[in-house]
Amino acid sequence: RLHENMEALAEDIRRPMPRTTDEYSRRGTAFHLWIENHFGAATLFDDEDLDFLDPLEDDSKLEDLKAKWLSSEWAERTPVAVEVPFESVISGVLIRGRIDAVYQKCDTYEVVDWKTGSKKLGSSAAIQLAMYRLAWSKLQKVDIEKVSAAFHYVPTSVTDRPADLMSEAQLIKLLDL
After folding, report:
1. Which residue(s) pair with 103 in the sheet?
2. Backbone angles phi, psi at 103, to 5 degrees
3. What whole-number distance in Å separates Cα of residue 128 and Cα of residue 98?
């Protein structure tokens, strides 16, 4: 959105408005809660907290997502962290987010963002991963070069690891536009 309409994004950040939830958003929320429970992580919400949402008419799509994820490489691995909240100030801009999962191998980390849609996001979406990568680096006080990041598209079992994630200096330059 930063590239498409900088002024609209700035206004949304300054004065966020509630968004209506659609079937895809509700399914995504339910899926993320299910993963948290799968790993025994403390969830942000209890199931009762979501009672205000209309139930999904076709639960089979959510069940398909669960089955696809359980057959992925990620289900066999144990994350070091799940649903990690962060706040970071970059070039005077407060960035808030929640990292879906972090996996560790020796002294390196990989932050992963679960995508419940199958449409591969464009190159500008890698900004999200760059922010997550930087946030984990700062939270853990590890060299950013020891942190990689990926989107995992659950419906297609595709993991996308962009090789050219922005550095902190590049993120600062982007925000200074």
Report:
1. 110
2. -115, 150
3. 11
Q: Which two tokens stand for residue 3?
A: 């590239």
CA distance 81 to 125: 22
Distances (CA, A) of 125 to 3, 8, 42, 146: 11, 17, 28, 21
User: pLDDT per residue over 32-47, tens digit each?
Assistant: 999 999 888 655 545 4
Cβ(111)–Cβ(136) under 8 Å? yes
Structure token digits, residue 131: 């922010």
- Predicted model pTM: 0.80
How far is 111 from 136, CA to CA, in rounded Å?
Answer: 8
Q: Is 59 left (phi over 0), alpha (psi -120 to 50) or beta?
A: alpha
- Alpha-carbon span 76 to 98, nearest angstrom: 22
Ramachandran angles phi, psi of 110, nearest 5°: -135, 120
Q: Please provide the DSSP assignment of 138-150 as one string.
A: HHHT--GGGEEEE
What is the C-alpha separation between 168 and 165, in angstroms, rounded?
10
